[in-house]
Design goal:
Blueprint (H helix, E strand, L loop, with lengths): L3 H25 L2 H4 L2 E4 L3 E3 H17 L5 E5 L6 E4 L10 E9 L1 H5 L5 E9 L12 E7 L6 E8 L4 E7 L4 E4 L14 E4 L7 H15 L17 H9 L3 E6 L21 H6 L3 E3 L18 E4 L2 H17 L5
Helix pairs in contact: 1-3, 5-8
Length: 328
């Protein structure tokens, strides 16, 4: 029977294959082709997404010959698939939650890297949750002009590991990521997510209130910055790499006439890696983050690079939410 440790290398190889297939598609096809809509699975599916999804199913079909697997992924008909064909969900020891391409929009326009995300949990059927994930792997899909890309992974309780791939040389080397140790957001990146239409006015007001409470304002100077990276896996990476100090995705809390597209569990299936790297991930109330292992639940989350930042920011953030009736 396959252990979680036995799944690491095959998943790493599969994600690398998805990375290479998507980079190749980006090199061969025009932006207009990659950005063509190709379906709807709760979020818009673009042509470039199909490249990743096809590579995912092909790779997992090979892996499933060792042991049946239950795959839950955006873009898969019905949202889930048991491999190999003919097996039943009850045959599966492992449940895999996958986002084959997190950050589609930035990648298809060659603005920013995307990520392949995979979380592996013991199969508890529909009761399986993010907190059950014992192995997580995420692999960067680089821009065409970018020759380096990174792969991160973690087993629960064993810390985060990372390596960097040079696609020109075909070489890989180990990598050490260091989260920020700063105790303030001053002169650093701190972001309230609002990269899609809907509820931006409320989210921006929360952002301004938090920053103004924490950073002394100076006329005509910017003492704090934001980075609207439209990839949850990418945002988690920025916290792990020391680029960002604080990120809050509060979109599910805000009710508006035009509800925004929200984060879902598959976007957070590699949160385990960030936690194992020492990043603090909570829900907006400050409790441990958790959600069903599905494709539809809207999830709000908050990430702090270290405990000092959490102590400084969390009371201010929660006060801003309470004043707007957004915190339970």
């Amino acid at each position: 029977m396959t252990t979680a440790e036995c799944l690491l290398e095959p998943i790493q190889s599969l994600q690398a294959a998805i990375r290479d297939a998507v980079v190749d598609a980006c090199a061969r096809q025009a932006t207009e082709q990659l950005a063509a809509t190709a379906g709807d699975a709760g979020d818009t599916i673009y042509a470039v997404d199909r490249v990743g999804e096809d590579a995912l199913v092909r790779g997992l079909a090979q892996l499933a010959h060792r042991e049946p697997l239950c795959l839950i992924a955006e873009g898969i008909p019905g949202g889930s698939l048991v491999l190999p064909h003919g097996a039943s969900e009850g045959d599966c020891r492992w449940r895999l939650l996958v986002d084959p391409l997190d950050g589609t929009r930035g990648l298809m326009y060659q603005k920013r890297s995307a990520w392949v995300l995979t979380g592996v949990a013991p199969n508890r059927g529909p009761a399986t949750r993010l907190s059950d994930i014992v192995l997580a792997v995420q692999t960067e899909i680089p821009l065409l002009k970018q020759h380096l890309s990174e792969q991160l992974w973690a087993f629960r309780g064993k810390g985060m590991q990372a390596r960097r791939h040079n696609r020109i040389l075909g070489a890989t080397e180990s990598l050490t990521l260091r989260r920020s140790q700063a105790a303030t957001i001053a002169h650093g990146f701190a972001t309230i997510v609002r990269f899609f239409p809907g509820a931006r006015e409320t989210l921006a007001a929360i952002d301004d209130e938090v920053v103004q409470a924490l950073v002394k304002p100076e006329p005509r100077r910017a003492a704090c910055f934001e980075d609207q990276y439209a990839s949850t896996g990418g945002e988690l990476y920025e916290l792990m790499a020391g680029h960002d100090r604080f990120i809050a995705d509060l979109r599910p809390l805000v009710k508006s006439a035009s509800p925004p597209l929200c984060c879902h569990p598959y976007d957070l299936c590699t949160a385990l890696i960030a936690c194992e790297a020492g990043v603090i991930i909570t829900d907006p109330s400050g409790a441990a983050l958790d959600a069903p292992l599905d494709l539809t639940t809207d999830v709000a989350w908050v990430g702090y690079a270290n405990e000092a930042l959490r102590r400084a920011i969390e009371p201010v953030l929660q006060g801003a939410l309470r004043r707007r009736g957004l915190r339970p």
